[in-house]
Amino acid sequence: MKKTIKIIKFVHLWLGLTCGLLVSISGITGALYVWQPEIIRALDSDLLLVTDGKLPAENVILSTANKIVKQHKNPQYMFLPYREQQTISVINKEGITQYYHPETAELLGAKTKTIIFFEDLLNIHRSLGIPIIGKYIVGTSSIVFFLFLLSSGVFLWWRTYSNKLKKGLYIKWKAKKKRLNYDIHKTVGILFFIPLSIIAFTGGYFTYHQLYKSGFSILDTADITSPKIGETFTVDMALAETSSSYYLRAVYFPTNDSNNFKYRYVNHREMTSGLRKTKEITTNENNIITSFSDHNSDLLSEKITAQMYVFHLGEIAGFLGRFLIFLCGFVPLILFITGLRFYFSSKKLKRC
Question: How far lies 250's CA from each of 23, 106, 278, 283, 297, in Å?
């Protein structure tokens, strides 16, 4: 047993000094990104918000979007009002983004430095800004953090404090540096174990989404083939169809790599708490539906993985959930620093 404990301590130490640093970067960038909607709304209100703060009727938004699309010869993406953005944006094949009023179709301007900053921040959060392999580094570190670093930490804490829980949650603030770092490390780690586990587990999904879906597919009871497949669906139809259940969020136009059109729907335009419900339609170049998904009829695995985003950002629990995620973003860095200082304090004592 002593040998096993020694191995677990060794694994926890070296994963903390390596994987812990990567997770700390993801944590800090994620904490800052939590408040992205509020910050860019405040700084870019002329670009993102309508004058009275109230969105036009749905049929007006769709009619305006249709008008804007017809003005563009080479649209790549079109995003309708959602979350912090009440306006309509179009990105052309040259990568230029322009924003339009959702009622008058007036051109409001192009992407600002604030928007670009948060796009870069999200890129660092998801891939450390490293092309291609960066997302695998981040995704793998999230899973390792969840499976090994957190679990080994909880095991070591429970082994020491299972019969004296109060002591396991106590920080002796006037203690010497080594003891203080240890107390902060073990107390903060155990207090934030559950939310950190949720963040790390859902964070891995954004890299390994197909593996997650395959794993959760064991919960599915039957295959579902949508009767919509084979039907005709066009851009004009998408921009004319209103519904009380879903709102058109985005249209993805054909690219050099794909001739498909893709339509993404959400169950609300404003940012709210609760489950995330979406609908997606993919058509080929002949406007024939080749793929169709709807939260209300999706397989259980699809319904579960669709919630990874709202759990990862805390939006499932509204403002309080987001605030908790914000706090959790700093915890990996605290654990990394206190663990590092405890390690060097121990090494220093051994040399004395």
Answer: 31, 19, 11, 14, 21
- Which residues, other chains included, contact 306 with Cβ-Cβ below 8 Å and sequence gap of 6+? 276, 277, 278, 295, 298
Query: If 0-12 CB within 10 Å is exposed, 13-18 middle and 19+ buried, where does residue 41 land?
Result: middle
The structure tokens 């804007």 sit at 68
- Render pLDDT for 25-47 as a digit per residue (tens, 0 to 9): 999 999 999 999 999 999 999 99
Q: Which of 224, 203, 215 is nearest to 309 (CA)?
A: 203
Q: Where are the chain's structural domains?
A: 2-35+120-219+322-351, 51-111+224-298
Name the nearest CA neighbour of 47 among 7, 88, 79: 88
Q: What is the sign, positive or negative, of the torsion defined by CA atoms of 219, 222, 228, 230?
A: positive
Distance CA 229, CA 241 (A): 18
Distance between CA atoms of 196 and 19, rounded to whole angstroms?
14
What is the spatial distance between Cα 268 and Cα 278, in angstroms, rounded to a whole number? 9
> Do residues 100 and 85 lie in contact, with contact meaning Cβ atoms separated by under 8 Å?
no
- Residues whose CB falls within 8 Å of the CB of residue 340, separated by 6 or more in sequence, listed in order: 16, 17
Report the DSSP beta bridge partners of residue 78.
90, 251
The token duo for 315 is 């939006």
- Residue 351 banded pLDDT, cuts 50, 70, 90: low
